[in-house]
Write a structure and sequence with these properties.
61% helix; 509 residues; 5-stranded mixed beta sheet; alpha/beta
């Protein structure tokens, strides 16, 4: 039997790889073990790796660390890096972050890219060493220049944020592109975002779409979202609501944390996609949709602007056709006094609903009356749960309401027209009312920014109520939304003009 350690090592390698010899981890272990007894560092490292992963032998982390130590003290760079990992995470040895950094640094000095990245990471976070962003940048740059993908992404972020280096967005984009060209999904996404925002690069929506698509092909959910944004806005691509919805759906499906609620917030605030209350209401409902699509549980906290659109969103989207149970988990204080009619509309316009509950919401007597009338319309509703209060004394008004028959239809219903069609008309009318009220709110804010003494005499609540009456009467009279807008503006301008006239009168006197 030969005793030359190099020969034994190569013989073990040939068996391990199946190169001109039968592939056999057992024989590889046998020859490497013989070479290791002669202090062959590479053989010791390979044996340690087999013990570490349980490949060809029973897994033994202590034995692996022991063999790595023998090879590492002989300067084997891979063993030094491996021992650094085991020491950092306490595998086979006592965890010691300072010692781990020492082993990483020994390997890093020998140009081991993974070790350079890890030692830079330790300095960046201050793990086992003092936090030192300059040293972190030094080591991460060395790894990045060797083509280490994670280092390129990290170094790009450091330039973008000015951590350890002078902030330079163009250099940040450069390093992201280095990693993106190697197929790194996060780098592709961040590079797309920089092109989208024009940060460090010339703003180019076409380039943004290209990079987002590359990341999306690797199931990057944020890339899916931004593709939805770009198709929704027509940025770098033709505007396409269908494809926009597709990409938004991909973003939701690919994210375990449920991106639906994030999408609702984006559409509500108008970040990136532009404000769209109808889409926000849809995604809010989607966020609470059960897997069997029969139940929706949502909190309205932070979404009070969407409350009036919930009935139409529930009715108009096929996604919610099977929904029979709707539960409101939390209702914001500012919604007090507005939800009774909304609950009533939900019960009237959605015949599939058999349960509407909001145990923590306290309704007043008027709302209770509305809900009772709604129960007369929706004969399928079997459960309604609200708290009823009168004179500050809570009482349970509805717990479980058994099926009721058509007994007292509201007077506005037209018996010659199918009930569902009438309800749909009402829902559409409410959507127009909602949009016009938003316009009224904006106009109010514009006028408030130019205060006149005349307005002090007329409370805004009164002006808003008159505006609401104009909206409702105009629409119910058959006027278009556009005509109603004109009427609304004429009203506000006339009030504004009266105010100016009164100022002139005061001035002249």
């Amino acid at each position: 039997m030969p005793t030359d350690p190099e020969y034994l090592f190569n013989l073990g390698l040939a068996h391990f790889e199946g190169d001109r010899l039968t592939q056999s981890t057992t024989k590889a272990f046998f020859y490497w073990n013989m070479a290791a007894t002669h202090n062959h560092a590479a053989a010791q490292y390979n044996l340690g790796t087999m013990y570490w992963h349980g490949e060809g032998v029973v897994k033994d982390l202590s034995k692996a660390a022991e063999l790595f130590l023998k090879a590492a003290t002989q300067g084997d760079v891979d063993a030094q890096f491996g021992l650094g990992l085991m020491t950092e995470y306490g595998q086979g040895v006592v965890q010691d972050l300072s010692k781990a950094t020492e082993w990483y640094e020994k390997a890093a000095i020998q140009e081991h890219a993974d070790a350079q990245y890890r030692v830079g990471f330790m300095y960046f976070l201050g793990k086992g060493v003092d936090n030192d962003l300059s040293k972190a940048a030094y080591w991460i740059e060395k790894a990045a220049k060797q083509g280490h993908i994670a280092s390129q992404v990290s170094f790009g972020s450091m330039y973008n944020e000015g951590k350890g280096v002078t902030q330079d967005l163009s250099k940040g984009a450069y390093w992201y592109e280095m990693a993106a060209n190697q197929g790194h999904a996060d780098a592709q996404f961040y590079l797309g975002l920089m092109h989208y925002n024009g940060e460090g690069v010339v703003k180019d929506f076409n380039k943004a779409v290209e990079w987002f698509k590359m990341a999306a092909d690797q199931a990057h959910d944020r890339a899916h979202f931004f593709l939805g944004v770009m198709f929704d806005n027509g940025e770098g691509v033709a505007r396409d609501p269908v494809r926009s919805t597709h990409w938004f759906q991909q973003a939701v499906d690919g994210n375990k944390n449920n991106n639906s609620l994030d999408l609702a917030k984006y559409f509500l605030t108008g970040n990136f996609v532009g404000q769209n209350f109808f889409k926000a209401a849809y995604w809010l409902l989607r966020s609470g949709l059960s897997d069997d699509k029969k139940t929706i549980k949502i909190s309205l906290a932070g979404f009070s602007e969407l409350i009036a659109l919930i009935p139409s969103a529930l009715l108009e989207n096929k996604e919610f056709e099977k929904v029979s149970s709707l539960e409101f988990l939390k209702i914001p204080a500012e919604a007090r006094g507005t939800l009774g009619p909304i609950f009533a509309e939900l019960m009237q316009s959605n015949p599939n609903l058999t349960s509407v509950t909001s145990p923590n919401y306290v309704i007043d007597e008027d709302e209770a009356r509305l809900i009772k009338k709604s129960l007369d319309i929706n004969t399928e509703l079997t459960e309604v749960d609200f708290k009823y209060t009168q004179l500050d004394t809570p009482k349970i008004s509805f717990e479980k309401v058994s099926k009721v028959f058509w007994s007292s239809l509201p007077t506005f219903l037209n018996f010659e027209k199918p009930i569902k069609d009438q309800i749909l008309d009402t829902v559409k009318l409410n959507k127009n009312i909602f949009e016009l009220r938003q316009h009224l709110k904006i106009r109010r804010e514009e006028i408030e920014n130019r205060p006149l003494p005349f307005f002090d005499a007329i409370p805004w609540g009164v002006l808003m109520e008159i505006g609401n009456q104009i909206i409702i009467r105009s629409l119910k009279s058959g006027c278009s939304k556009e005509a109603t807008l004109i009427a609304l503006d004429e009203f506000l301008l006339s009030v504004h003009a009266d105010g100016i006239r009164q100022i002139k009168t005061i001035t002249n006197s």
